[in-house]
Design goal:
single chain, 332 residues, three-stranded antiparallel sheet, 14 helices, 8 strands
Length: 332
């Protein structure tokens, strides 16, 4: 594995501004060093101790090198693993092409265009996109809301895009049985925090909203929502202050749903016009891509490439999430 930084102690002690500058120049640095994404994964693991991919224990010891890559062994369960195990680069072929694939991806290029420019097949392009997006799922834990929080229900079309039907009978049966809509909870606050959360139901329930509130905002916050039944049924012991908006106008001059409705409209346009819809089982992946674009990817393509690589490399369970998504079966 190639060294991306010479002084790891200095790297680990970087300030927020220094880290931002480092990431903005990361793509150019790695191209100059001819380093790949696996090399960067080896650097990222220095910022946090490795965890066992089976039992998630931190009782880990080094267990030699294999092809220049550090191996580890869990003292609790005996599992042996590498720096890359479970990450989005686990079992990655053509690792030297992934950095430029990320550049194409953050530039907004299609799967086909990414595949052509980087020199990979279309199925590989699809798999790489979703391995990267699966790594972004953990960043949902970093998003919390404060103060006045606008919330609304977004109903999106259920889709099995990409599914290949065995025969006409299977297609006919699927059309009869599959749900028409999928419920998504949209939330944003005055600080600009934004999240869309997909639920496996045709419409939101008060229980789903309450669970979201418990994990994402304090009890003394203000939930500003539409007058749909699920929002009105949210209990006071979950959120003390509720403002139900019954019209398109502001309530008492300060409460409205204009921001969340605007964000929801922009998101649905992005899904339906840029991608021409996405399969429902991958929807949460695209949700986190959209959220990350607004929160972290605000610079130029070269800068965003380093930032996206850093975000994806921070997660150690992306490969497992990706495999779970791929193995989800459609409605029969």
């Amino acid at each position: 594995m190639k060294k991306i930084v010479e002084n790891t102690s200095k790297y680990l002690a970087m300030s927020k501004e220094e880290n931002k500058e480092f990431l903005d120049n990361l793509y150019s640095l790695m191209k100059k060093l001819e380093a790949d994404v696996v090399d960067y994964q080896g650097l990222k693991i220095l910022s946090a101790p490795p965890l066992c991919p089976d039992c998630r224990s931190n009782h880990i010891i080094k267990n030699g090198l294999q092809n220049g890559m550090q191996n580890y062994r869990c003292k609790d369960c005996g599992r042996q693993f590498r720096v890359t195990t479970g990450t989005f680069v686990y079992r990655l072929q053509k690792k030297e092409k992934m950095l430029d694939y990320i550049r194409c991806m953050v530039a907004g290029k299609s799967l086909r265009a990414c595949a052509k420019e980087v020199g990979i097949s279309l199925p590989t392009s699809f798999a790489w996109r979703h391995k990267i997006l699966a790594a972004l799922q953990s960043f949902e834990d970093n998003i919390n809301f404060f103060g006045v929080v606008e919330m609304d229900e977004l109903l999106m079309d259920y889709s099995e895009k990409g599914r290949i039907y065995k025969n006409a009978e299977e297609l006919k049966r699927a059309r009869k049985q599959k749900p028409k809509k999928v419920a998504v909870l949209a939330a944003t606050d005055r600080a600009g925090n934004l999240l869309f959360k997909k639920f496996e139901s045709k419409k939101l329930s008060s229980e789903q909203i309450e669970q979201f509130l418990k994990t994402k905002m304090p009890k003394d916050g203000v939930m500003c929502s539409s007058n749909k039944k699920a929002f009105k049924k949210v209990r006071r012991n979950v959120i003390k202050h509720k403002e139900i908006i019954t019209s398109h106008r502001q309530k008492r001059g300060i409460y409205s749903l204009s921001t969340v409705k605007k964000k929801a409209s922009e998101f649905t346009n992005w899904i339906y016009f840029k991608f021409r819809g996405v399969a429902t089982k991958y929807l949460q992946n695209y949700i986190m891509w959209y959220v990350v674009m607004g929160k972290y990817l605000t610079g130029k393509t070269v800068s965003n490439t380093g930032r996206m690589l850093n975000l994806a490399s921070s997660d150690r369970w992306a490969w497992y999430r990706y495999k779970e998504l791929v193995n989800i079966t459609y409605v029969n």
